[in-house]
Amino acid sequence: MCGEPGDSGGSWYSGPDHAAQAQGVTSGGIVGCPGDGPMYFQPLTPILDQWNLDLTTG
C-alpha cells in the first residue's frame, strides 16, 4: 500500500476495479512510496452498522 498525507478517510477496497469489494476507510499509517510501511483502515461493516446504513453498489 502506498499512502500519502491526506489519504485518511479514503476508500479501502480489494480486487480489480471492475469487481472491487469495499473493505473500509483509510485511517493512517506510514506515508510515502514505495509502500514500505503499514497502512491502517477501519472496517466498513461497523461503520455502516453504527449509522444504520446499507452499502449499495451499481
Spatial extent as radius of gyration: 13 Å
Distance between the termini: 26 Å
Task: Detail the poorly predicted runs.
Answer: none
- In percent, how helical is the residue content? 10-25%
Average the pLDDT over all residues and give the rounded result.
84
β-strand number: 3
Q: Can you count the helices?
A: 1
Indicate the structural class.
Answer: mainly beta
- H/E series, N to C? EEEH
Q: Proportion of β residues? A: 25-35%
The largest beta-sheet arranges its strands as 1-2-3
Shape: globular
Tell me about the largest β-sheet. Answer: 3 strands, antiparallel
InterPro entries: Peptidase_S1_PA, Peptidase_S1_PA_chymotrypsin
Region (Disordered): 1-23
What is the gist of this entry?
With 58 residues, this protein is mainly beta.
